[in-house]
Specification:
Number of helices: 8
Helix content: over 70%
Order of helices and strands: HHHHHHHH
Largest sheet: none
Distance between the termini: 74 Å
Shape: flat
Structural class: mainly alpha
Radius of gyration: 22 Å
């Protein structure tokens, strides 16, 4: 008799958990829409030359919402890509160019692999060997795959001479962090994205 009373309770609890998850998800989507709408309202209100600054500030707020560490990760990857691209553009030595491309790929893909696959690898090792005793609790930063491959495409294009190196760090940071593109996708190559922004007078 006791068992029959417990099962409906578990079912009700499961429904409550499902409903709670849906409400949280809906709340997040609503907050994103409000944030996006406010950003676009300010964007349309300010003069043209200040519009990239509005988008940049909004994008940094978006990425930093989950915590300063995630914003620092975005900034770190953008700095690495900015410096590697400058080094590639400034040298005529093919070996040095390749060296800086390898530095770029190793740094960015290494960080991506750490955040995406460390828990999976740790769980697999624990299942097979019992080690490690504790699984690291690593939260996947929002948009990390998006801006990692955006930046990689930029540096690779610089390496192959398809685009000129971006000397203004804020422009490259805007390219890597543009938040509404992260939400909607897709990943856009630097040449395509940058040219479309120039045509729309966003980066002028």
């Amino acid at each position: 008799m006791l068992q029959t009373n417990i099962l409906p309770c578990k079912k009700r609890q499961g429904k409550l958990d499902w409903l709670s998850t849906k409400m949280i998800s809906y709340g997040k989507e609503r907050n994103i829409m409000v944030f996006f709408s406010l950003t676009m309202a300010v964007y349309l209100f300010v003069p043209g030359r200040k519009r990239n600054l509005v988008l940049l500030i909004a994008s940094l707020i978006f990425y930093g919402w989950g915590g300063p560490m995630y914003l620092l990760l975005l900034l770190t990857q953008t700095v690495v890509s900015y410096l590697c691209a400058l080094q590639i553009a400034h040298t005529r030595n093919p070996k040095k160019k390749k060296f800086w491309l390898i530095v770029e790929c190793t740094a960015l893909l290494g960080l991506l692999a750490y955040f995406k696959y460390t828990p999976l690898i740790a769980r697999t090792m624990q299942f097979l060997s019992g080690f490690p005793e504790f699984i690291p609790d690593i939260i996947l930063p929002i948009g990390i795959s998006f801006y990692t491959f955006q930046l990689l495409s930029y540096v690779i294009d610089v390496y192959w001479g398809k685009v000129e190196v971006q000397r203004k760090f804020s422009n490259l940071l805007l390219y890597s962090s543009l938040f509404h593109q992260c939400i909607a996708g897709p990943i856009v190559r630097y040449q395509t994205g940058f040219n479309s922004w120039i045509n729309k007078a966003i980066l002028k």
